Amino acid sequence: MSLRTLALFLCPLVLGGCPSEADPFVTGDGTTVDSQTSDSTADSSTGDDDTGDLGDSASAADTGNVGTDGTDATPCETADDCPPSSDCELVACLAGQCVAGPVADGSPCDDDDPCSTGDSCVNGACTSTVEDCDDGLPCTTDTCTDTGCEYAGVIGCCFDIADCNDRDPCNGEEDCDLTNNTCVAGEPLVCDDGVVCTADSCGEQGCMFAPVANCCGSDADCDDGDACTGTETCDLETGTCGAGTPMLCDSGHPCTAGSCAAGVCTFAPIAGCCVGDNDCNDSSWCNGEETCDLATNTCQAGVAPSCDDGDACTADGCSQGTCAGPAPPEQCFCTHVEIANCCETNADCTDFDWCNGTETCDVTTNTCVQGPAPSCDDGNPCTVDTCSSQELCPGPAPPSVCNCMHTPIAGCCAADTDCYDGSWCNGEETCNLSTNTCQAGTPPSCDDGNSCTQDSCVDKGVCFGGSTPFTCNCEWEPIGGCQ
After folding, report:
1. Which helix (H) or strand (E) holds 120?
2. Which of 128, 156, 207, 252 has the fewest CB atoms within 10 Å, measured from its CB?
3. What are the phi and psi torsion angles at 20 (to 5°)?
4. Whole-prediction pTM value?
């Protein structure tokens, strides 16, 4: 079918009518063709390669984006605006709209399926035949992929006995079941030589029988050559040695321990073992009298004698030695050591120091308690009060007078009189009672009101007659040449 014929077939569907013979339309290569041009002229001007031959299949044309009323048609200016939707579609730009139709049946195409062959166009659709990948072998899995047919071996599938041989003699000889091409396990190899003293096993070479260490086949295999351990025997069913009955080494004496070495018994004394009280005597009076427990043949310590003298201030003990003469043991061996600083009465605590106060004895702990120190405060803020203990106070003086000392503090005052320095010219000194320190006075004025005298103050000490301190201590020296 020519392009003109295609246009005449499709234009009623697209435009609702065909253009007049004078109206042109645009071909796939953009060539304007007059509607009166003959089929042969149109074919020669556009070329069969550009339009193709639609043949009789035009009646089944695929109009693509073009609706029957033309409302859905895609507008175009050239054929480039009308790309085909598949290898089996022919599209053209007609009167400003895209129109489409099928290519000729048998035209080549590609359905993008690698597992198909003979791809060709039929009624505008790409058809093909699915490729058969079956290789006829039961031990392969046949599949088609993007690269074509692939054949994967099936695990465990067999054709003959050789396919089933796992090269393990211990599993027995495998066979192949050709009815379903699967391997059948063989009968496992039994490795038993019936010998107790071999370890039976199966390996790459088949059955193996390794000797079992220390396994016996007779009583002679178990003899250790030591009469002290008795006679050993062999258990023939298990191949293991049984210990013999050890030789009994018993002297019949409870205080000996019997032992056997190289078939000979020896008997050693047991330390601390006794058969009578005399065996337990340690010759020490301080430990008491030891006895023997015949049920266990062990010595029991005696009860230590008491050395308590009833004096809380002695440490009582016992010291073993030799007692001479007729003195009883408690006088001979008991010791009583004085405990330092221990007391029983207040008199035991007196240190003869009045300054420490009066000491007392705490009879619950037998320790001395320091008494409160006496006060030497004389109430005078200008003395340092201390206590210096004297062994003896002379005369009838009480301890406070004898032992207390009051040292004056330099520059300290308790009244204004403590601050007088004997100088009228320095002014009258006063005492600051909050700090007990002297404050300087204000010097008096010797001004006589005469500008022609040099006024000064000179302490005279004692003023005689009816003179006043002012007239006694003030001096007025005339100034020469002054008028």
Report:
1. strand 116-122
2. 252
3. -70, 165
4. 0.30
Q: Block means of pLDDT (10 residues each) for the chain, length 483 residues?
A: 45 44 40 37 35 35 39 79 89 90 90 85 90 84 84 86 87 88 89 90 90 90 89 91 91 91 91 91 87 92 89 89 74 88 90 87 91 89 88 75 89 90 89 92 90 90 81 89 83
Q: Which residues contact 25 (CB under 8 A, 6 or more apart)?
A: 7, 19, 32, 33, 35, 94, 95
Same domain? 368 vs 454: no
User: Within this chain, do residues 364 and 479 fall inside the same structural domain, yes or no?
Assistant: no
First to last CA, the chain: 166
φ/ψ of 46, rounded to 5, equals -95, -25
In a domain, 83, yes or no: yes
Q: Is residue 460 part of a domain?
A: yes
Q: How many beta carbons lie within 10 A of that of residue 25, not counting itself?
A: 23
Q: Are residues 24 and 124 in the same domain?
A: yes
- Domain enclosing residue 458, as ranges: 444-483
Nearest in space to 107 (alpha carbons), one of 93, 92, 127, 84: 127
The answer to whether residues 19 and 122 belong to one domain is: yes
Cβ neighbours around 425 below 10 Å, total: 16
